[in-house]
Amino acid sequence: MKVGIPASPGYAIGRALIRGSYQSKIIQKKISNVISEKERLYRAIDKSRQQLTEIRDKVSEEIGEGNAAVFESHLMLLEDPEFIGAVESNIESNIVNAEKAMQEVMDMYISIFDSMQDDYMKARSSDIKDVGNRILSNLLGMAVAGLETSEKDTVIVAHDLTPSETAQLNHKNVIAFVTDLGGKTSHSSIMARSMGIPSVAGLNDITKVVKNGDILIVDAILGQVFINPDTETLNRYRRKKEEYEKEKEELKSLKNITVSTKSGKKIRVAGNIGKPEEVDFVIENGGDEIGLFRTELLYLDRDRLPNEKEQFEAYKAAVQKMQGKAVIIRTLDIGGDKPLPYLHIPEETNPFLGYRAVRLCLDRKDIFKVQLRALLRASAYGSLKIMIPMISTVEEFLAVKDLIEECKRELDNEYLDYDRNIEVGIMVEVPAAAVCADELAKHADFLSIGTNDLIQFTFAADRGNEKVSYLYKPMHPAILRLIKMTIDAAHKEGKWCGMCGEMASDEDAVKLLVEYGLDEFSMSYTSILKVKKLILEM
Question: d(Cα 71, Cα 56) in Å, to the nearest integer?
Answer without folding.
Answer: 6
